[in-house]
């Protein structure tokens, strides 16, 4: 009867072995046979067993609560398939048979014959294919065949079997080999070596002592101590005291019992400090205080024992206790050398196996996953049946494979743990980790299916929350994805992964262009103190704000940028994103809030570090510094800008115009004049060119160079137009200035022409027009055109202009006086 069954769950096959009822049993005989290869194990009663293949040429037969008879009957041979059988026994009383084979085993079949209590194991080796044999071996075989036979064998299969048999028979091996340990594991390397020490002491020769120790070993302490009290030899009083203490130690369970025993052991030490059994007193005291939760006191006794008697026969167990106690208080760097010393110095004890397991835990906790695997794989090779009893072993191996990227191996180990230990508490997490492994293997459909199974089978668990988030991350439907994130945030607000769900939801909002909502979600996350997520959250907030500010700036909504900045400026200052601060600086600049703009640009420049600052940021930084009155900073930034864009005349002309303004304000008119002239020569827009020329002309006017001023103004007029109101006003101002320059030179006709053109421009303010009319009248008067001059004066008087009308009245009165004087 084949005893394996297959269970389908969530897209994964889980294999389970049906086990007979547990009972102590004895392996009485092994019978081997070939063709097919068969191993028959005969027991005295029913046995719990498992058979599994650990390698291409290795099988393990695990026998629970079983031992091998001393007169084990062996018969038959299974050569060339079965090469060797090694027997091992664990401290728990279980037995393991390791079967080593010659050829690779293709499949294994097992049968339990309950009537005769025989376990039959059939081994089917792979058939060696001719094309898999190296060419040299084939040629050698042909030579051998030719030498031995004149004709090739008509049966190729029989020929291959014969060759394999010849090779196997040439290898000197024993069919069955029993591997025994140096000492019986019971009482070897542990504190219970006290009993062995008593037997090997001078007091151990008495029959009463031997009987008493045997009774104590068998759990009959009261009977053993009575026997010892009846026939104890003289001088062996401490033997009775220590064996009684050992019996109390073995059964003390309640804290009061343990405390009383500890006091008795201290009294025993003080009573006879030279006793040969003193190390066991220290050992028992250390264990007792550990059991009572006082690890520092227990560790003190253990360390004292290591110092006083480093060769103590129970040292393996002491080192294991110490290693575990240091691990318990997170002093891993002190625990590791202790456990490694135990493995290296006492590797053939059962405590070394436990030490390897503890080292596996320790190395895993220190994230040394490759070292964890190396340690635990050694443990599995030495005690292969342990994987059927220790779920932590499978979990550590599986999770270490996961963290090292061996996802297929992680699935194998974690699946076995999930299947073999149905009562373990963290089943939802194990199944979730299996799903994670499939996800990393790009088997997304299997991963999704498993996440859904976890959510269905384990609602409300950690695995449910994790699987909900992982499933959401794999879904393409954004609405369903967001629903899962929102469910975790809403229903599990105190779960550590609620913050991750909040982060993922914010990322989803960002990806869908909902930048404002993304920022709001990140703000909630930052308030919740995300710890490990903080850097990522700030980065996401920075990207969201940058995209949001870009939308505002493109639409000219500069106040919105400032408003949002004021709301988010706490975390925003921690966001090391220079472009973001440059955007805020631009908003302040457009709002003419120059000091605030400078602060943002200064922060942006600092965050760029050694990287190149974009030219447009340099330009705006310079303009902001100019507006804030920091001429030196403005000049520095604008100069850097000019160096960065030597082939960009448009932007260079703007920078030079600002430099001209700054130099003029700093009292450097000559430098300012050159800057304006250079700006005008580079400018491609007529309006800008006119503005720069007019600024240069004003410097020349202040310097008294009216001829050069007039020349530049006339050059400006060549590019000036009246397309807009701004252009009209500038055109009017240039003509007015040109008239003033020509009048100052005494060129009144040209001055009158300039004033006349200015006066004729429509849409000019009344006060400015009247000023030009008055200057025009004055100029006409000087040219002798008194008729037009009087007409303009009279117009100004009729217009009732308070300034120019009054001055016109005075000029008319003067002209009348002059006329009378000329007539007289």
How would you summarize this macromolecular structure in one to three sentences?
The protein is 63% helix and 11% strand. It is of the alpha+beta class and 824 residues long. Strands 7-3-4-11-10 form a five-stranded mixed β-sheet, with no helix packed on it. The protein has a five-stranded mixed β-sheet with strand order 5-6-9-8-12, with no helix packed on it. Strands 1-2 form a two-stranded antiparallel ribbon.
For the record, give the distance between the C-alpha atoms at the N and C termini, rounded to a whole number. Answer: 155 Å
Main beta sheet strand tally, sense and closure: 5 strands, mixed
Q: Which strand order does the major sheet show?
A: 7-3-4-11-10
Shape estimate: elongated
Number of DSSP E strands: 12
> In percent, how much strand structure appears in the residues?
5-15%
Unreliable spans: 1-23, 129-154, 160-187
Indicate the radius of gyration in whole angstroms: 50 Å
Number of helical elements: 36
Instruction: Report mean pLDDT, rounded to a whole number.
Output: 83
State the share of residues found in helices, binned by percent.
55-70%
Structural class: alpha+beta
How would you characterize this protein structure?
With 824 residues, the chain is an alpha+beta fold. The chain has 36 helices and 12 strands. Strands 7-3-4-11-10 form a 5-stranded mixed beta sheet, with no helix packed on it. A hairpin with a 3-residue loop joins strand 3 and strand 4.
């Amino acid at each position: 009867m084949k005893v394996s069954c297959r269970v389908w769950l969530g897209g994964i096959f889980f294999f389970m072995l049906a086990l007979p009822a547990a009972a102590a049993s004895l392996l009485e005989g092994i019978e081997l046979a070939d063709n097919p290869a068969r191993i028959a194990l005969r027991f005295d009663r029913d046995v719990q067993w498992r058979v599994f293949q650990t390698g291409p040429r290795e099988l393990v037969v695990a026998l629970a609560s079983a031992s091998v008879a001393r007169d084990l009957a062996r018969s038959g041979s299974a050569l060339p398939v079965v090469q060797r059988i090694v027997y091992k026994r664990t401290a728990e009383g279980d037995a393991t048979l390791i079967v080593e084979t010659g050829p690779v085993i293709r499949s294994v079949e097992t049968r339990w014959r309950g009537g005769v209590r025989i376990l039959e194991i059939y081994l089917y080796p792979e058939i060696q294919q001719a094309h898999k044999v190296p060419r040299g071996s084939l040629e050698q075989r042909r030579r051998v065949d030719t030498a031995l036979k004149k004709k090739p064998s008509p049966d190729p299969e029989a020929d291959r079997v014969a060759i394999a048999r010849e090779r196997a028979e040439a290898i000197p091996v024993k069919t069955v080999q029993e591997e025994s340990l140096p000492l019986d594991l019971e009482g070897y390397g542990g504190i219970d070596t006290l009993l062995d020490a008593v037997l090997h002491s001078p007091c151990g020769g008495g029959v009463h002592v031997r009987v008493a120790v045997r009774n104590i070993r068998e759990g009959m302490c009261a009977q053993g101590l009575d026997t010892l009290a009846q026939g104890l030899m003289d001088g062996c009083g401490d033997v009775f005291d220590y064996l009684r203490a050992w019996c109390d130690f073995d059964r003390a369970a309640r804290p009061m019992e343990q405390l009383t025993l500890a006091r008795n052991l201290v009294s025993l030490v003080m009573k006879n400090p030279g006793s040969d059994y003193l190390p066991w007193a220290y050992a028992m005291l250390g264990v007792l205080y550990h059991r009572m939760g006082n690890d520092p006191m227990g560790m003190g006794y253990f360390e004292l024992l290591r110092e006083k008697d480093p060769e103590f026969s129970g040292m393996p167990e002491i080192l294991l206790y110490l290693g575990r106690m240091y691990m318990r208080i997170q002093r891993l760097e002190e625990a590791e050398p202790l456990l490694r010393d135990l493995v290296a110095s006492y590797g053939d004890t059962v405590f070394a196996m436990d030490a390897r397991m503890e080292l596996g835990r320790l190395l895993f906790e220190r994230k040394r996953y490759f070292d964890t695997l190396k340690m635990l794989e050694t443990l599995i090779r030495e005690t292969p049946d342990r994987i059927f009893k220790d779920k932590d072993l499978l979990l550590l191996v599986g999770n270490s494979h996961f963290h090292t990227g061996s996802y297929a191996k992680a699935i194998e180990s974690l699946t076995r743990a999930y299947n073999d230990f149905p009562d373990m508490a963290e089943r939802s997490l194990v199944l979730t980790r299996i799903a994670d492994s499939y996800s990393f293997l790009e088997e997304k459909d299997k991963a999704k299916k498993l996440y859904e199974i976890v959510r269905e089978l384990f609602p409300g668990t950690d695995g449910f929350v994790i699987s909900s988030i992982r499933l959401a991350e794999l879904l393409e439907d954004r609405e369903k994805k967001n629903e899962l994130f929102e469910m975790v945030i809403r229903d599990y607000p105190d779960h550590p992964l609620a913050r991750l769900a909040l982060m993922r939801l914010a990322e989803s909002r960002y990806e869908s262009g909902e930048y404002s909502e993304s920022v709001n979600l990140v703000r909630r996350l930052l308030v919740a103190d995300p710890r490990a997520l903080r850097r990522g959250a700030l980065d996401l907030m920075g990207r969201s704000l940058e995209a949001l500010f870009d939308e505002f700036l493109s639409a000219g909504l500069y106040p919105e940028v400032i408003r949002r900045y004021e709301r988010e400026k706490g975390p925003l200052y921690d966001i090391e994103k220079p472009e973001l601060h440059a955007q805020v600086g631009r908003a302040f600049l457009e709002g003419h809030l120059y000091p605030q703009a400078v602060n943002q640009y200064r922060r942006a420049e600092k965050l760029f570090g050694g990287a190149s600052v974009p030219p447009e940021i340099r330009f705006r930084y310079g303009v902001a510094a100019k507006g804030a009155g920091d001429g030196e900073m403005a000049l520095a930034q604008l100069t850097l800008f000019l160096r960065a864009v030597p082939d960009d005349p448009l932007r260079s002309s703007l920078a030079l115009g600002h430099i001209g303004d700054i130099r003029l304000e700093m009292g450097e008119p000559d430098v300012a004049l050159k800057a304006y002239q250079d700006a005008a020569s580079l400018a491609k827009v007529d309006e800008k060119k006119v503005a720069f020329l007019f600024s240069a002309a004003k410097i020349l006017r202040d310097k008294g160079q009216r001829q050069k001023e007039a020349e530049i103004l006339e050059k400006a007029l060549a590019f000036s137009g009246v397309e807009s109101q701004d252009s009209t006003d500038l055109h009017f101002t240039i003509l007015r200035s040109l008239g003033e320059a020509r009048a100052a030179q005494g060129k009144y006709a040209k001055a009158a022409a300039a004033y006349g053109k200015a006066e004729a421009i429509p849409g000019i303010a009344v006060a400015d027009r009247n000023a030009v009319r008055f200057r025009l009248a004055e100029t006409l008067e000087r040219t002798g055109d008194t008729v037009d001059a009087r007409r303009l004066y009279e117009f100004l008087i009729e217009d009732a202009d308070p300034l120019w009308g009054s001055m016109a009245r005075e000029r008319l009165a003067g002209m009348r006086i002059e006329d009378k004087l000329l007539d007289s």
